[in-house]
Amino acid sequence: MDAAIVTVGDELLVGDTENTNATWLCGRLDDRGVTVRRVTVVPDEVAEIARVVNEYHAEYDAVLVTGGLGPTHDDVTMEAVAAAFGRDLAANEEAADWLAERGYSAEDLVAETTHLPVGCRPLANEAGVAPGAVVESVYVLPGVPAEMEAMFETVADEFEGTRTHTVVVDVDEPESELLERFAELQEAFDVSVGSYPGESVRVKITAASADEAARAAEWVRERSELVDSGLADSETTDSER
């Protein structure tokens, strides 16, 4: 499964707010074997949100949109997602009933709080008020981190891919000196390789099988100067192609 994440908010684009939602979602999707192909930040503008959602919906298996839910003037995400699918916004009885069960009457809320794209599947906001929604393969989640995380967990089982295996080797050499070895490694093994320099170079080796990842990691260890001769194995996930 391939996915895209769209985070909405002017505050993200000017640096007032750190985009922790995207980081959290990437981690949770990766845990479930989903490959995140795009992370995009868009302003609180209907046309921009709708354009990106429309494009990503056509290209990827799932799109997760977070931010811009609620009744205030700059909460336009639901309107934009509805526009992307050529739908209207309308009062959603299921969302209203859910809020009523939590003690919110119509008089307590701005009317637009429960206005969702026609034909959507509403998502309850267990940590807040503004409901989310699923429109075809587009998941619309709140921007408040605690609310977004709680809502995602209610649909997490809908995101699945094929688990892969990763081994990280810490190499005590300049990254530039490892390039030829990386090329040889990928010729010898069916793996992907990432390198992340810092005080040492973290070489991340990922394969479809644990054995292949372990054998490739051992190949690197035998041919490199290591920070620590011990291997730290950790499983990650990748998408099903």
From TrEMBL:
CDD domains: cinA. This is Molybdopterin binding domain protein. It comes from Halorubrum lipolyticum DSM 21995. Coiled coil: none annotated. SUPFAM superfamilies: Molybdenum cofactor biosynthesis proteins. The lineage of its organism: Archaea, Methanobacteriati, Methanobacteriota, Stenosarchaea group, Halobacteria. Residues 4-163 form the MoaB/Mog domain. Gene3D superfamilies: MoaB/Mog-like domain (3.40.980.10).
